């Protein structure tokens, strides 16, 4: 995740972090805060440093264990930028131009203001992956195109220079509830949306309760899941189900005959019970940044050991002379 805000939101937690936590016991996992990706758009340096630490603290507070996994900051492993340059040089311009997320983001900001870094960030993302020779990469459906580019670049390099990279497979994350904006329940919850519609992990509980109680519903008063005709109510039911593990059908039955006020109160209580411990633990970690930085440095050292081996092999294959 990019450190582009001072808090992760509920969609980040339910859509990615919960999966990552469970994967630590099954895989040799590498998780990073991608600050190199963050600067593809303008960033305030002080905010970037703060947000990077806050993102890392929330990873750990949500259950990412630095003793089980390599948790690190992307910029602290120089091989990411170094391999990205090599991969840039074997990527076709048309190939990069077909990346749909660049088109979406550049259209929103205006093509003239979009940076070259934003254009090439899928190639940096490919370097992020290939450095660690992974067999599997956890992705959602919206990242399939970028993983296909990664696979293409790995196979192209292997074909030109000899077997170097493992060609990774997609590890499609288990289906999770799609978490939508509280004020615009047809749009996914996002850092860039209206603040009133986003449940932030680091918000005070009173703020979270106020947002949920002020969420958009409808006028017919019936609590049932109907994403097309009742998106607001359906979103609240989806959130309630995701944080409690109770099926939507069971929730509909338990809330039968009750009003939207009851639904919102129940959802608020359930959400707070999950995210409040994360916020408290993250706040504790942020109170001692030296200790937090040391954890991240340790993760970077472990990651760097693997990344440097891959980079050395790449540099040798393409004909660079090693420093003696």
Overview of the molecule:
With 324 residues, the chain is mainly alpha-helical. Helix content is 56%, strand content 5%. It has 13 helices and four strands. The protein has helices at 10-23, 35-38, 45-62, 79-88, 93-97, 100-109, 116-130, 144-161, 205-213, 231-244, 248-254, 260-286, 289-318, and strands at 30-33, 70-73, 136-139, 169-172. The chain has a two-stranded parallel ribbon. It has a two-stranded parallel sheet with strand order 3-4. Helix 8 (144-161) links the parallel strand 3 (136-139) and strand 4 (169-172). Helix 3 (45-62) crosses helix 12 (260-286) and helix 4 packs parallel to helix 13. The chain is globular.
Strand order of the largest sheet: 1-2
**Can you give the mean pLDDT?**
92
Low-confidence stretches: none
Instruction: Work out the helicity level.
Output: 55-70%
Write down the secondary-structure element order: HEHHEHHHHEHEHHHHH
Oligomeric state, counting identical vs distinct chains = single chain
Largest beta-sheet details: 2 strands, parallel
The number of helical segments is 13
Task: Give the C-alpha Rg.
Answer: 21 Å
What's the total count of β strands? 4
**Backbone shape:** globular
Structural class: mainly alpha
Instruction: Report the β-strand fraction as a percent range.
Output: under 5%
Give the termini separation. Answer: 37 Å
